[in-house]
Amino acid sequence: KKAGCHPETETYNALIAGFCGQKQFDLALEFLNEMELQGKKPDVISYNVLIRAYCEDGKFRDAIELFEDMPRRGCKPDVVSYRILVHGLFHGLQLTEAAFILDEMIFKGYAPYPSTVNQLMRLLHKEGNLELFFEVLSSLARGNFINADSWALAIGTIPRKCEHVILEDLFDMLTASYAE
Known about the structure:
It holds the Pfam family PPR_2. This protein is an all-alpha fold. The protein has helices at 9-21, 25-37, 44-56, 60-69, 79-91, 95-107, 114-127, 130-142, 148-156, 163-179. Helix 4 runs antiparallel to helix 5 and helix 7 packs antiparallel against helix 8 (130-142).
């Protein structure tokens, strides 16, 4: 700066990534704010780097808050932003939050990673959270983002005593998703 050179967004992003790699999140956030003060608009990469680092460090609340703050700061989350957050929340066993963000992602028309979806479905099934499992399944079906593995898993999770009722609902979801 003293020599009249002013860093560009890419330079700030590299610094933010470096601070995140050292788990110096306060400094990374400080540089994000500094960008705006210097008239450089943080881009989606600026935020995604921090969101990923927060998730990897188990700072899920910070990741969600930053994600939600993006539009207020003039930066719209993209498909990568959603994928990073869903993946991070899922791996941190923040299943309800992951399902909520996944639903928002699908509503916006963004496709989740199939591997993340299948892992999330398996974990919800394993945890016994069938209500959330079927909410996620329904959301995926509405967005036409469900694959054969997820359908097979869904059918295999049905408790025998209520099989006929749930199978009818699943069949309706399946046929509706392929009719569109």
